[in-house]
Amino acid sequence: MANLGIPQNTIDILQKYQFNFQKKYGQNFLIDPSVLERIIAAAEITREDHVLEIGPGIGTMTQYLAEAAGHVTAVEIDKALIPILQDTLSEYDNVTVIQGDILKLDVKGLMEKQSGGKPVKVVANLPYYITTPIIMGLFESNVPLKSITIMVQKEVAERMQVGPGTKDYGALSLAVQYYAKPEIVANVPPNCFIPRPTVGSAVIRLTRHEASPVQVEDEKFLFALIRASFNQRRKTLANGLSNAGELHLSRDQVTQALENLGLSPTIRGEALTLEQFAELSNSLKKA
Q: Residue 57's closest CA among 74, 37, 39, 40?
């Protein structure tokens, strides 16, 4: 089968099947062999690995994954791409293609069936509009993950990696860093895709922590607290958290908890580290 990383081969396949790009699925197919090789290298794919690929498209990266991995399970939402994938991946007996929406699938059940409960590496070129729900869904579903190596909008990748005190720091930064160590491994310009996106992209690898870097009494409460802290960025934590209905906290409780941690009542969420959020969460939970 022709290497789809070569632009002309991608164009030939798209013409053969008269494929129309679906804006609602945010489809941008990668056409740069060097970027594809960097993704495989960054994900450290070996013959021992079971890979979950989200959004294989016409199978460009799937071909590279199949060459490197033990087995690849590829989940594609667009029904129109299934016959194309059957064609472009026909030479590989270590690929399973599943038509479905990753956000609605029981990913844990699927991977137990496919990989027998072995740790999984996720690789994906994600549509920008659903990057966050997919990543959070994977972490929260208790799938045995080793790492997630994904192509996302450059801004989003930067947001996952930054620390306190920067304007990009927010709920996504904290949630990702709670579960994994983020590292941007490549910046990818728009001309590496067909059709060209309007923004730059980046490949980021999220290596799952063996054990969480912080100890929290109640994970759900921690994340509710983090979300409330950034919902109204301009507000002080004391105001933002006491206004958040779902938390049922009084201004006095929040102020007291902050003072117990040696923090000013006028501090804002963007100034707190993950460790401080965990301490605050534990302290408020007790209160």
A: 74
User: What's 263's domain CATH number?
Assistant: 1.10.8.100
Burial (0-12, 13-18, 19+ Cβ within 10 Å), 26: middle
Residues 171, 42 share a domain: yes
Q: Looking at the DSSP assignment, which residues form a beta bridge with residue 147? A: 121, 207
Q: How far apart are CA 114 and CA 109, in angstroms?
A: 9
Q: What is the pTM of this model?
A: 0.92
Full domain range(s) for residue 229: 219-286
Structural domains counted in the chain: 2
Residue 129: CA atoms inside 13 Å, Cβ hemisphere, count?
A: 7
Q: Tell me if 223 is assigned to some domain.
A: yes
For residue 34, is it within any domain? Answer: yes
Q: For residues 17 and 159, give the distance between their C-alpha atoms in angstroms, rounded to a whole number.
A: 38
Length reported for the chain: 287
Look at residue 222 in the predicted model and tell me its pLDDT.
95
With cut-offs at 50, 70 and 90, classify the pLDDT of residue 2: confident
Give the integer Cα–Cα distance in Å for 283 and 214.
14
Q: What is the mean pLDDT of the chain?
A: 93
- Dump pLDDT digits (tens) for 127-147: 778 889 999 999 988 889 999
Structural domain includes residue 168: yes
Amino acid identity, residue 150?
Answer: I
* Of the candidates 73, 75, 25, 39, the residue with the CA atom closest to the CA atom of residue 55: 75
Q: Kindly state whether residues 70 and 41 are assigned to the same domain.
A: yes
pLDDT of residue 10: 92
Peptide bond into 195 cis (omega under 30): yes
pLDDT at 73: 97
